Amino acid sequence: MRRILTFNCHEAWVHQLASLGLEVDVVDGLPGRYTASWDERMRPVPSCFRLLALEDALKEPRPYDCIVAHNLSDLLCVKALNAPRVLVLHVTLEHRLMQARITTPPDDFCATIRSYLARVGGHVVAVTEAKRRSWGLGGDVVEAGVDLASYPIATREVAAAVRVANQITARQQYLFWDFHKTAFADIPVRIVGYNPELPGVEASRDWADLKHILSRHRFFIHTADPQLEDGFNMALMEAAATGLPLLGNRHPTSPVEHGVHGFLSDDPEELGRLGRRLLDEPELAATMGAAARDLAERRFSTVRFAHQFSHAMDRARDAWLRVAASKRSPG
User: Fold this and answer.
1) Which domains does the chain have, with CATH numbers?
2) Among 1, 17, 107, 182, whose CB has the most other CB atoms within 10 angstroms?
3) pTM here?
């Protein structure tokens, strides 16, 4: 069976690699994360996955068919391994530079990555079109996917909103948090995620618990700064998969059609009124939630993800073989 090597940067995204039907080795225990190892509150470890330390991956006797990296550090860690490489861009360039406090001019930073990819025959995959444009490195866009069969149909019995977000205090600008607080000031909102500095806010116990929480609430919230984040993320896809209406600020990349899958507004007071309307009109929430579930099935399926990511790995292999051939050529 074909096998790939990746790094544990984001359990929810890495978990979907199981849909490829391959063996997946995951470098775990990386520094700089809020947990020392794979966080099973986010996702269980799929049966086709094997968690291992970086030093063990580097000594692995069987070759990998592809290496899936999530940043330049990942690529440099495995430079001794002989395999095609995919670099996945999860955030915008602006977000990465701000997050990592990188002072190198953006053009120079991208030029370094472009040069390295050309040298090793690497291929780029961005998780959204906006992120591909931000980096200017070309490559493919492969949006994440959700398997509707894995999600319960929403009951929406709790007259409250729900939002999934980690490390809110450090990411307030990206999350448009001031807008969120103003819009939903008088609406009960349950926040789910790792936020130890926020009293009363907890992560879900596990993935099953997260799906249960989503399914019981009336609507889902996603707000984001259009300059730094997309108008959707994996949590929004999951909420749509359960059949929740989706509320947020207007955003050029949002998949939400106002009045169909939920409501969008750049006026926080208006968005708050629309949220209260969903609390008062459960039938409207049910209609919009059904439309949101249809959106998840059409646009964000794991079948689509697996097909597109497999194609990207094929392109990475082609690029790697071209570089290998050029090194063997006497000219």
Assistant:
1) 3-145+302-328 (3.40.50.2000), 148-299 (3.40.50.2000)
2) 17
3) 0.91
